TrEMBL record:
This is GNAT family N-acetyltransferase. InterPro entries: Acyl_CoA_acyltransferase (IPR016181), GNAT_dom (IPR000182), N-acetyltransferase (IPR051531). The keyword Cell membrane does not apply. It comes from the Bacteria. The keyword Acyltransferase applies. It is an enzyme of class 2 (transferase). Its EC number is 2.3.-.-. Residues 9-182 form the N-acetyltransferase domain. GO terms for molecular function: acyltransferase activity. Keywords: Acyltransferase, Transferase. Pfam families: Acetyltransf_3.
Length: 183
């Protein structure tokens, strides 16, 4: 299992102690604003178990992220950042996506960008991926800003209706960002 350290963060495998704070962030209406529904404790635990299973199988995935720098105002588990193979068909799949979900206490501190840069480096240098994508509901300006800080670009022709989101939902329309491997 690959673990990644940055100046302030550790991207690592999941621990049982991560499940309760993960459930709390998955139940937070603001964190889950751009998802079809909040998750109850059982759904959140099931998701964490599945993420952990994928990491065990392939050595990487949506890593648990903890703040490791003692001088930071936030400490411990803050959410996840990492890589995934989407399980749906779209014009851009198969692919590797980068994604994140952090608790509100971690917002606005650059953690998502810092961890995502490390995950991208792993995708390009360790996995040899030619491209990484990211996608989110069209109105998710916070995640879109992270994608842009990472140097990802969007072509509106790539935008799509997410097949796992109900027809008629304002969250169905998704924007797609791409980042090619460095030359």
């Amino acid at each position: 299992m690959t673990e990644i350290a940055t100046a302030r963060l550790r991207l690592r495998n999941w621990r049982e102690g991560d499940f309760a704070p993960f459930a709390a962030l998955n139940a937070d209406p603001e964190v889950m604003r751009h998802f079809p529904a909040r998750l109850d404790r059982a759904e959140s635990d099931d998701l964490a178990v599945e993420i952990r299973r994928r990491i065990a199988r392939q050595g990487w995935g949506f890593w648990a992220v903890e703040v490791a720098a003692p001088e930071e105002p936030v400490s411990g588990f803050i959410g996840f950042v990492g890589l995934n193979r989407p399980g749906f068909e779209a014009h851009f799949t198969p692919c590797i996506e980068i994604g994140w979900r952090l608790g509100r206490a971690a917002w606005g501190r650059g953690y998502a960008t810092e961890a995502a840069r490390a995950a991208l480096d792993f995708a390009f240098h360790d996995l040899g991926e030619p491209e990484v994508v990211a996608f989110t509901a069209a109105g998710n300006d916070r995640s879109r800003a992270v994608m842009e800080r990472l140097g990802m670009s969007r072509d509106p022709a790539d935008d799509f209706d997410h097949p796992a989101v109900s027809e008629g939902s304002p969250l169905r329309r998704h924007v797609l960002y791409r980042l090619p491997a460095p030359a």
